[in-house]
Design goal:
Oligomer: single chain
Distance between the termini: 16 Å
CATH topology: STM4215-like
Helix content: 10-25%
Number of domains: 1
Number of helices: 3
Order of helices and strands: HHEEEHEEE
CATH architecture: 2-Layer Sandwich
CATH class: Alpha Beta
Shape: elongated
Length: about 140
């Protein structure tokens, strides 16, 4: 399992996602509420030892579409993203091909798109996810 597959699998373990949808899409989010899409944005080397073992960092954007009919729903949306960020921060040592996830941080959880034509369409939020992981030779 590569880093993208591992983070996607972790997201599906979070109850507020897995209870609502059957999967997290890759690079795609439906416009209907309760859709999730994980987009890979960067992978970089942090350090490498003389044996070729690496510590890497992979950045993602998680796009979510939620209903936002009233303040209660919008507060619930923000709360769910906050809880997801906290939960992801507690997930360590998930295996990937040739290594493990060592640390996950999140940030920039915010509203990014509001429908213009129909106020009943879902609004879109984003959450940045940064996963540090090892690749051993």
């Amino acid at each position: 399992m590569n880093i993208i597959e591992a983070v996607r699998a972790l997201l599906m373990e979070f109850p507020k996602i897995s209870d609502v949808v059957g999967e997290v899409h890759i690079d795609f989010t439906d416009p209907e509420p309760t859709s999730y899409g994980l987009s890979s944005t960067d992978d970089s080397l942090i350090k490498e030892d003389i044996l070729g073992n690496q510590l890497r960092q992979h950045t993602f954007m998680l796009y979510t579409t939620y209903s936002s009919m009233n303040d209660y729903e919008r507060l619930s949306n923000s709360t769910a993203l906050t809880e997801l960020g906290i939960w992801l921060g507690q997930q360590k040592n998930a295996p990937i091909d040739g290594g493990r996830i060592t640390k996950i941080t999140t940030g920039s959880g915010m509203l990014i798109a509001v429908p213009q034509e129909n106020e009943f369409d879902g609004v879109q939020y984003q959450l940045q996810i940064i996963a540090e992981y090892t690749k051993e030779q």
